[in-house]
Design brief:
Number of domains: 2
Strand content: under 5%
Order of helices and strands: EEHHHHHHHHHHHHEHHEEH
Shape: globular
Distance between the termini: 41 Å
CATH architecture of the largest domain: Orthogonal Bundle
CATH class of the largest domain: Mainly Alpha
Largest sheet: 3 strands, antiparallel
CATH superfamily of the largest domain: Fido-like domain
Length: 379
């Protein structure tokens, strides 16, 4: 399949509307546009650097937990859910009732990501895995009545209040299983010599075009990118997440996907995707470097002042990199030390400018590792 000659599909007449039936993608893909080669080489180089960094940084998994939390927030925000990073790190019991639904959606995404990454150790990336992720994603939240974990058996649409004014109508439900089978085969077809990042770009477009679930397609489609990069071996750890890039360029993202369907312009979509890989990899490396520098400064210039408390203080610091918003009870449960020891340590960290107490209360106080948390807040 030559990308420049690609025909995205055709519209099929249904009852009172036309659905889009996309071209199957399980094929060899070639192109003449040299810009694709340049961007692909750069994206592979940057992604390799990010992966190498994540492999050689001590305790990378701790920091990746924060990246996953940020990805969950950004991916959910694209769908209209609003949760801040400090909220996402709290327990459900600590969230105000009016914020609980949004918090739950973000936490479902985190669980779907973590569960799927874990399952990749024993299962291939498949429609089965995506269905299981979708079931977790939709559990106990808006849309939970819309067949969680199952492909749709009715028509859906994007934009507009009804099918009559929809901006895009995906393929009719009877096509979904065959189309998703074709997508899955494309991801694993070793007989087709297609670079991993080109497959990832085309597969994400195709997933969003099929829209196989009644709800949650955007989040599962973005999750698919990370899962495929890990399952293909291009990433050893799930250290790259595109939702921040997509949210910042949301209209361009939608426009580029639509232009494939309307103008057969797969080239522009792939370029947009590869630029996203490059920029997100750069940002990921910068964040890892900043975290290491922050850790080093705190240990060498601040914790060193605590003398015999140093081993416990280092344990607390390690915990804060995973959970930068804590209560005294959280710390006691994690470090298994007495409450007086915890309160003394928290006071030390506050005095040294590592932690900020956020409530102003005398009891049930909440401490925030603000300098670290700011790395994952919107800028």
């Amino acid at each position: 399949m030559k990308i420049e000659a690609f025909k995205s599909g055709r519209y099929l007449q249904q009852y009172q509307y036309k659905s889009f039936s996309p071209t199957r993608i399980n094929d060899s893909w070639i192109w003449e546009d040299g810009k694709i080669n340049t961007l692909l080489a750069e994206a592979n180089r940057k992604l390799g650097a990010l992966d190498a960094f994540s492999l050689h940084v001590p305790d990378t998994d701790i920091y990746i937990e924060m990246h996953i939390a940020k990805e969950a927030i950004k991916s959910s925000r694209i769908e209209g859910t609003h949760t801040e990073i400090e909220e996402a790190l709290k327990k459900g019991s600590e969230i105000a009732p009016e914020r609980k639904n949004d918090w739950q959606e973000v936490h479902n995404y985190i669980e779907a990501m973590n569960t799927s990454i874990s399952k990749l150790k024993t299962l291939p990336l498949s429609t089965r895995l995506l269905k299981e992720a979708h079931k977790i994603l939709m559990s106990g939240v808006r849309g939970e009545q819309r067949n969680p974990g199952e492909f749709r058996t009715s028509q859906n649409w994007i934009g507009g209040a009804t099918l009559k004014d929809a901006t895009y109508i995906p393929p009719v439900h009877t096509e979904v299983n065959e189309l998703m089978s074709d997508l899955e085969n494309f991801l694993h077809n070793d007989q087709k010599d297609v670079p991993v990042l080109i497959r990832a770009a085309i597969s994400h477009y195709q997933f969003e075009t099929i829209h196989p679930f009644l709800d949650g397609n955007g989040r599962i489609g973005r999750l698919l990118i990370t899962l495929y990069l890990v399952s293909s071996g291009l990433l050893t750890k799930p250290s790259l997440y595109l939702s921040d890039y997509i949210e910042k360029h949301r209209q361009l993202y939608y426009d580029n996907l639509n232009h494939v369907r309307l103008k057969n312009d797969m080239l522009q979509w792939i370029k947009f995707f590869l630029v996203g890989i490059i920029e997100t990899s750069d940002k990921g490396i910068d964040t890892f470097k900043t975290i290491l520098k922050l850790k080093e400064q705190i240990e060498d210039k601040k914790l060193i002042k605590l003398g015999k408390k140093l081993p416990t203080a280092k344990s607390l610091l390690k915990y804060l990199f995973r959970k930068p918003v804590v209560t005294a009870q959280d710390v006691q449960d994690e470090l298994k030390v007495s409450l007086p020891t915890v309160n003394s340590l928290l006071s030390d960290f506050e005095r040294l400018g590592i932690l900020d107490e956020k409530t102003g209360w005398k009891r049930n106080r909440e401490f925030e590792f603000t300098e670290y948390l700011n790395l994952f807040r919107d800028k």
